[in-house]
Structures are given as structure tokens and as C-alpha cells.
Amino acid sequence: METTLEPLDPALVNPVVKPESLDPCVDSQGRYKVVPSVVCSMCCLFGVIYCFFGYRCFKAVLFLTGLMFGSVVIFMLCYKERVLDTQLSVEAAAGIGLGIGTLCGLVTMLVRSVGLFMIGLLLGLLVALATLVGMEELSDTPPRSVWVPLGVLLGLGMIFAVLTLQWQRLFTTLSTAAFGAAIITVATDYFVELFALVLYVGERLKATPAAPVCWVTWAVLGAWPALTAIGVLVQWKLTAEGYSHTKVIISRQQRRMQVMRIRQRDDRYRHKKKKKTASAAMATQGKMAAVAEPVYRRKPNPIRRYDTDVLSPSYIQSFRERQVQAQPFPSRLVLDLASGPQLQA
């Protein structure tokens, strides 16, 4: 009796398990890789710094934000599109993206307005992603057009960018706390469910029907607003208290120059004050001299004189002697004649 062996189906020998066929709550132990695990661990460390020390490390945050935006955008363009009719490898695209991202980071760090705009744009994109998730879960008929996610991302991104330029300290603290919490959430999502939450958010950007997710995914997603609130409180009460990004750090030489200018200004002020004091003293002395020696004097009353007032006593005596020699007069008459001018005087 002859039996013929039918060829086995390749799908049965090497079954290909699609992501849709996996149980959303299945245990993912044993499927981790070394490189993603190390990268997620480093990202978790950066997320802690962003979340709790974002405003304190203002310059570093500006540089990292520009580096991230520039690297991601240039990497996607170089990897997805052909450059000079050549398809670049992942390593080449990553190198080009890292170089241009470094330049973008320097620009955002040195030009404060550009850095603040990027920080506000980052906060708007995070709020837009949360809005898309809420629209998918809370709406009965969620929109399936690609223009809806694009409009939400651009609209909220620009709104929060302008608000950050207006209220810099408040929205910088909110943005750093939210972005740091998002990085920690994504890193945790890899160790818990191998980026199940990231894949779900990616489907929201594509406006495709949502696949069922496990409750663990929602628990990980719920950690994001909680960490954001904790980060804002920590920065407001501890790390960012008494610090302002508008203060400029000056060098030692510039500080010495400022001290010299302040001293010169104080010397000039003291010299002017001495001059004013001396002039005031001279003016006071002049006033006192003017009061002691008046310019206008009162003239005394003129004395009224008579003809006999100008006669000298010797003339009167000689006149009396001549009268006595010529004709004797009574002594009383002579006395009255001699004392007459004195009585009238």
C-alpha cells in the first residue's frame, strides 16, 4: 500500500503572527531587545530631568528641543525620500539628522524666541495627540479623514506656541513637565507592552479604525497626566522657585567693568553733592552778611539851628566885656544875655 505525503503548508511550519491576532493583554516577557531597552532607559532618565528640572535647565531644554525636532524631521525626510537618486541607509539618515539637529539645537538655544516657540509647539502637539485619542474613544462616529489629525496638530501647536511667547515661564513649565512625563510614559510602555500605546496613538494619526487595547494600556496612559501634574508642582515649589530665565550670566571681566562703572558713578555723585553743599554754604553766608549790614540806612532828622548857635564862647565873652566898659548894665541883664543862646539851644 503506497501512501503519498502531501507537502506541508508553509504557513503551518512558520506561522506569521499578526499584531491584530495577538491578545492585547498577553504577557510580553521574553520579547525584549537589548538596544531598545537601553534607549528607553536613557530616555526615561532624560524624561525625569525634563519633568522635574525643565525650567531650571532652561538652556539645556532649548538645545534638546531643537535637537529632537531637527533630528526627527531630517531623519524622516532622508529615510523615506531618495536623496540625489540614492536611497540612504538608516545609519546615513541618522547621521545627517543628528548633524542638522545639532545646528537646530544651537539656534534654539542662542535665539530665545525660537526656542520658546519650539517649546510651545511641542506642548501643542502633545495636547493635540490627547485630543485625538479622546475624539476616538468618546465620539460615536470619529472622523476618518487624514486632514482632521493634521488640522488639530497644526492648530493646537500654533496656538500654544504663541501662548508660550506671551507667558514664557508658565507655559515653559507646563511644556517641560508634560514632555518629560510623555517620555517616561513611552519608556514604561515599552517595558510593559512593547509600545502598544505608541502603536495606538499612531493609528489615531492615520485616522484608521482603532484596535482593542488592554486595560494596562489605559493605565499607562493615565500615568501621563498624573506625572505632568506632579512635575508642575515640583518645578513650581522646589526646582524653579527663585529662578528666572531672563537673568543673564555675565563673565568675571564684565562684572569688574560694571563694578568700576558703579564706583565712578558714585564718585561723580559725591563730587556734585560736595559742590552743592559748598555753594549752599556760600549762599547762606551771603544772606547773613546782607542781614547784618543793610544797604539802605535811615537818615537822621536834621537839627534846626539859629544865628546865635554859631557864636563862640570867646566872642560872647569879649562882647560882654565891651558892653561893661561902655555902659554899666545890671548884672542880671548881663547874665540873661550870656545865657540866652544856651536857653534857646
UniProtKB/TrEMBL annotation:
<feature type="transmembrane region" description="Helical">
    <location>
        <begin position="91"/>
        <end position="110"/>
    </location>
</feature>
<dbReference type="GO" id="GO:0031410">
    <property type="term" value="C:cytoplasmic vesicle"/>
</dbReference>
<dbReference type="Pfam" id="PF13886">
    <property type="entry name" value="TM7S3_TM198"/>
</dbReference>
<feature type="domain" description="TM7S3/TM198-like">
    <location>
        <begin position="40"/>
        <end position="236"/>
    </location>
</feature>
<dbReference type="GO" id="GO:0005886">
    <property type="term" value="C:plasma membrane"/>
</dbReference>
<keyword id="KW-1133">Transmembrane helix</keyword>
<feature type="transmembrane region" description="Helical">
    <location>
        <begin position="213"/>
        <end position="236"/>
    </location>
</feature>
<feature type="transmembrane region" description="Helical">
    <location>
        <begin position="61"/>
        <end position="79"/>
    </location>
</feature>
<feature type="transmembrane region" description="Helical">
    <location>
        <begin position="177"/>
        <end position="201"/>
    </location>
</feature>
<feature type="transmembrane region" description="Helical">
    <location>
        <begin position="116"/>
        <end position="134"/>
    </location>
</feature>
<protein>
    <recommendedName>
        <fullName>Transmembrane protein 198</fullName>
    </recommendedName>
</protein>
<keyword id="KW-0472">Membrane</keyword>
<comment type="similarity">
    <text>Belongs to the TMEM198 family.</text>
</comment>
<dbReference type="InterPro" id="IPR040236">
    <property type="entry name" value="TMEM198"/>
</dbReference>
<dbReference type="InterPro" id="IPR025256">
    <property type="entry name" value="TM7S3/TM198-like_dom"/>
</dbReference>
<keyword id="KW-0812">Transmembrane</keyword>
<dbReference type="GO" id="GO:0090263">
    <property type="term" value="P:positive regulation of canonical Wnt signaling pathway"/>
</dbReference>
<feature type="transmembrane region" description="Helical">
    <location>
        <begin position="34"/>
        <end position="55"/>
    </location>
</feature>
<feature type="transmembrane region" description="Helical">
    <location>
        <begin position="146"/>
        <end position="165"/>
    </location>
</feature>
